[in-house]
Design a protein that fits this description.
The protein is an alpha+beta fold and 108 residues long. Helices cover 33% and strands 28% of the residues. It has a four-stranded antiparallel sheet, with helices on one face.
């Protein structure tokens, strides 16, 4: 799977993709000051959900935050892959249930 580099997130871009039936989004948070109010701190928020629907209709299953640095990006992708493995063990939704779920989500 292609993984964007640190600079991609530092410019404020988010990244979404799928692994099997799992979907995920990585979003850099706005810059904040550390607890002492001195150093700027940025984080990367990772969210996962079960497909087939995109982010706009997603019911987020789990969220985790990571430091916005190279190690944080690596950790975020490792976390996403572990979450995707769990989601992909679930049986796929039958077509009729998927259509009903789509209609339900569209009405929110």
């Amino acid at each position: 799977m292609f993984k964007p580099n640190l600079q991609h997130f530092q410019y404020g871009n988010r990244w979404g993709a799928e692994i099997g039936n799992a979907r995920f989004m990585l979003t850099p948070d706005a810059e904040k000051k550390d607890q002492e109010g001195k150093e700027p701190v940025r984080q990367l928020t990772a969210q996962v959900w079960r497909g087939p629907f995109g982010y706009e209709l997603a019911e987020i299953r789990n969220t985790c935050r990571f430091p916005l640095d190279q190690d944080g990006i690596e950790s975020a992708f490792a976390w996403v892959e572990a979450e995707a493995e769990a989601i992909n063990r679930e049986p796929p939704l039958p077509y009729e249930e998927m259509v009903a779920e789509f209609r339900r989500l569209k009405q929110r």
